[in-house]
Amino acid sequence: MLAPGGGEVTVLDGGLATELEANGHDLSDRLWSARLLLTDPDAIEAAHLAYFRAGAQVATTASYQASIEGFAAAGLDAAAARGLIGLSVELADRARTRYRAETGDKGPLLVAGSVGPYGAILADGSEYRGDYDPGAAALADFHRPRIETLVEAGADLLAFETIPTIREAEVLVKLLDEVDVPAWLSYSCRNGVSTSAGEPIETAVAVATNPRILAVGINCTAPRHLPALLDAARSATDLPLIAYPNGGERWDAASRRWLADEGGAYDPAAVASWTLLGATWLGGCCGTGPSDIRALATVLRAA
Questions:
Q1: Residue 143: helix, strand or coil by DSSP?
Q2: What is the mean pLDDT of each run of 10 residues along the chain (303 residues)?
Q3: Second label for 216, Cα 20 to 30 Å away, from 10, 154, 234, 238?
C-alpha cells in the first residue's frame, strides 16, 4: 500500500481493550487489559490474531497499563511484573506466527511494545488531561523497567502512546538512547491544536528528535480533530506522521467508560485520506475494532 508520493503505508491495529470487551471481558479495574496477562492470556493472543486477520501489520502489546508499580498494587513483585510485561510481547508474537502459518503471508508484520503514560497508572483519566508532574527523574524511573523488559522480550519497536504532555515525551525520547530499537511517539490531544495538556501540537511533535523515532503524531483523540492536528504537525516535522484516533467518543474517568461525544465517528475512508496530510502509519484506538481495521486496509489497498 502506497501513500501519495510513493511512501509505504503501515496499517496499525485497533483498540485491544475494545476487542477484549467485545468478547465479554470486564476490564473495569485499574489494570485494564493488562489484567488478562495474568488471568486469560489466550484472550489477548486471540485479539491480536483477529487484527492480523483484519489486515493490521502491527500488533500493539497489552502493556499500555502494565508497569512494575501497577502490578505491585495488585500484589505482584517486580520479577512477576516483568514476566507479565514480557508475556505481552510473547502473545503478540504467537499471534503473528499463527497468522503466518494459516495464510503463508511473508510480508512485514511488527510487534510494538506499548508504553502508555504515567497518568494511566493513576486510573483517573489523567492521560487525557496531563495534569500530573512527578518530575523527570520519577518519570524515567517509572518507564525504564517496562521499556527494558519489552525490548528484552523481543519487541520490534516501542509505541510511546497517548502521551499527554511534552515533559513526559521528552523523558521517553531520552530513554530511547538506552535501548537499541526504534519507536513511535504519539500524543493524546484535547482539540485540533493542542495536546491534552494544552501545549501546541507543533511544539510537541518537534520533541521527536531522537534518530530512533520512526514516526510522530496523534492517537486516542476524536477523529474530527485529526486533520487539523496533522496539518499543524506536518509544518513542524519531516518525520512520517502516525494517526490512530479513537472511535469518536470521550473517556469518562468517574464511570470508567466511553461516552458519546459530539462530532463524527471513526470513518475508515476518512482515515485513509490522511495520507494526503503526511500520515503513513494509520489505524485505530479505543472504540475501534477489527471491522474498522479491515475497512481501512481495504480502502488503502484500493487507493
A1: helix
A2: 61 95 82 84 97 98 91 88 96 98 93 95 84 96 97 98 97 97 97 96 97 97 96 97 88 58 82 97 96 97 86
A3: 154
